[in-house]
From TrEMBL:
Native source organism of the sequence: Paenibacillus haidiansis
Entry protein name: Sensor histidine kinase
Membrane topology: Multi-pass membrane protein
Enzyme Commission designation: 2.7.13.3
Entry's localization field: Cell membrane
First-level EC class: transferase
Annotated transmembrane regions: 277-298
Domain HAMP: 298-350
Molecular functions per Gene Ontology: protein histidine kinase activity
Signal peptide range in chain numbering: none
Taxonomic lineage of the native organism: Bacteria, Bacillati, Bacillota, Bacilli, Bacillales
Major subcellular site: membrane
Length: 570
């Protein structure tokens, strides 16, 4: 199955046209479910049918076993009654005809007793003396019994014996199967030593059950002895095969086996019928699937082929090509969209050709107005020397700090810098603010020395400090605490102030990365957060906690690294 699916998928990928792919897709969609349904329905149905059929045959075998066991138990009960009668009475029966009236009466009473045990299915109950004289039912012909092969075979057994046969020792031929039990009466029961008790029970009910079950189950039922000899069957011309389905049960009363045999083809006949119908319906479904696949593939691929032709012509330079719209479905919408697109592209080509010249001129103008960073640094250095010559040390120091900050801002070559360089820029920015606000604020920096070589995106601390002075402090008054530490290979920077804080309403805008309405700035925080996420992933970046009139706490997290990474556009 796996190999077939692999070949189907390979064929699908190698199909040249959309029409072929659609036909394959429709065929697979139409046939695979039906085929799978047919297979599983056949498998499950045949399994259920075979199981039910097997259960019924086994039920028939069990019923036949119970019936035969019941008959044998009835014969055993009659045998027990006769033996109990002989033990309890003191009769004396000789091997010859009674010579006295008293012997005649005793023998007559015994004969009346055993014949009284006969019933509808108990055909004969009799005692056979060693000389062959029959005491009991007069249907037994003594001469026929003596000449019977059955009786000569029985004399070989020294104990009880039960068999099923057609007796040949009756005065009137019965031609019926009998279940016969022969019990040697070796004990002194008042009978001659060597006498035997013979009980014949009709087996017609057993035969009728066998015939009924054979008709219903289409099987062959038989009863065999322990040696495998068939004792009773309805047909002797049945030939057993090795592939027959066999059920068997052993009787409780005797070592007989009730066996049912069903030919393999007969047992799976219902499954074969289910298989034929499943195959028929699957074949019809596949034929219908091919027809539907052909119809719908042509229906869908013709507009697509026309559209592909128009697109090819358009790509070759025929800008005036259009594809016909013949339907209002998705394919028609696609063709209409292509026509609109070609019109827009034609207009866009003219627009581009018209504006390209204006764009070139604008770029030339921009080049004229670009500010050269070297010119800015040279100018600031010149002002710094002028301040030194004019003996203005404060202006000189401010310019010195400003040059360091600007140098970090214009250094686009490095995306990640050591933490010590970024902290140096932050310190210079703080010094510039001291020239502005003098001692109105305090700044405390706590950093573990071993972390100073760890890398951090450049220019991320200065925007956060600048945000405190522009939005948090009033006239620069307040306290700032900056801590940098490591926790499980994660660097963490916390920047706390006791300024004005942020309102809950404004925090919603800041948390979503939006600009606060009516407020200047606000882009610095978002820019820092985006740069950290672009470098390290969404799990890192900036978080803000703020309480109005109590202060703000900004937290930055990023992984610990000291390796120089590839430059980023950020």
């Amino acid at each position: 199955m796996k190999r077939i699916l692999t070949r189907i998928l390979l064929r699908f990928r190698m199909a040249g046209s959309v029409r072929t792919k659609l036909m394959l897709a429709f065929f697979i969609v139409a046939t695979l479910p039906v085929g799978a349904l047919g297979y599983f329905s056949y498998h499950q149905s045949s399994k259920v049918v075979n199981s039910q059929f097997g259960s019924y045959v086994l039920y028939a075998v069990d019923q036949l076993k119970l019936h035969v066991d019941g008959n044998l138990k009835q014969i055993d009960q009659i045998t027990g009654n006769i033996l109990s009668y002989l033990i309890a009475s003191s009769i004396t029966v000789g091997d010859d005809v009674p010579s006295t009236y008293e012997q005649y009466v005793e023998e007559r009473d015994f004969q009346n007793y055993i014949t009284s045990l006969e019933s509808t299915n108990i055909f004969v109950v009799a005692v056979i003396t060693p000389s062959g004289r029959v005491i009991g039912n007069q249907l037994i012909n003594e001469q026929s019994l003596a000449e019977s092969e059955f009786w000569s075979d029985i004399s070989q057994y020294g104990n009880e014996h039960v068999l099923i046969h057609i007796p040949d020792y009756y005065s009137t031929p019965a031609n019926e199967y009998m279940i016969s039990k022969i019990v040697p009466l070796n004990r002194p029961f008042g009978l001659p030593d060597g006498s035997k008790l013979l009980i014949d029970m009709k087996a017609d009910t057993v035969l009728s059950l066998i015939k009924s079950f054979e008709k219903d189950t289409k099987s062959h039922l038989q009863i065999m002895d322990a040696a495998g000899k068939v004792l009773l069957q309805t047909s002797s011309d049945y030939e057993s095969r090795e592939d027959d389905i066999v059920w068997s049960r052993t009787l409780d009363a005797e070592d007989w086996v009730v066996e049912a045999r069903v030919p393999y083809a007969t047992f799976y006949e219902s499954s074969s019928v289910i298989l034929r119908y499943s195959a028929l319906f699957s074949g019809l479904a596949m034929l219908f699937g091919v027809m539907m696949a052909s119809f719908y593939s042509i229906r869908f691929t013709m507009p697509i082929k026309k559209l592909a032709h128009s697109m090819r012509r358009f790509g070759e330079g025929d800008l005036l090509i259009r594809t016909p719209v013949k339907s209002s479905d998705e394919l028609g919408f696609l063709s209409e969209s292509f026509n609109k697109m070609t019109e827009q592209l034609v207009e866009l080509v003219h627009e581009i050709s018209r504006t390209e010249k204006l764009k070139s001129e604008a770029e030339l103008k921009i080049l004229h107005y670009q500010i050269n960073p070297h010119l800015l640094f040279n100018t600031l250095n010149s002002i710094q020397w002028k301040a030194k010559l004019a003996r203005q040390p404060e202006i000189q120091k401010m310019l010195q700090h400003l040059i360091v900050v600007l140098d970090g801002s214009f250094n686009f070559k490095q995306t990640l810098v050591p933490l010590r360089k970024e902290l140096e820029i932050a310190r210079h920015f703080i010094e510039i603010q001291r020239f502005r606000y003098e001692d109105a604020f305090t700044f405390r920096l706590e950093v573990q020395p071993e972390l100073e070589e760890c890398l951090v995106p450049r220019m991320v601390f200065q925007p956060l400090l600048e945000n405190i002075f522009f939005h948090g402090f009033q006239d620069g008054q307040g306290n700032i605490r900056m801590r940098i530490f490591e926790d499980k290979n994660i660097l963490c920077m916390t920047l706390e102030d006791d300024g004005a804080g942020v309102t809950a309403e404004h925090m919603k805008y800041i948390a979503s990365g939006q600009k606060v309405p009516g407020k200047r700035g606000g882009l610095g925080l978002r820019n820092v957060d985006e740069r950290f996420k672009l470098h390290y992933g969404e799990a890192y970046g900036l978080s803000i906690e703020s309480i109005r009139n109590q202060g703000t706490k900004v937290t930055l997290t990023w992984p610990t690294t000291t390796e120089i990474q590839a430059p980023s556009k950020y």
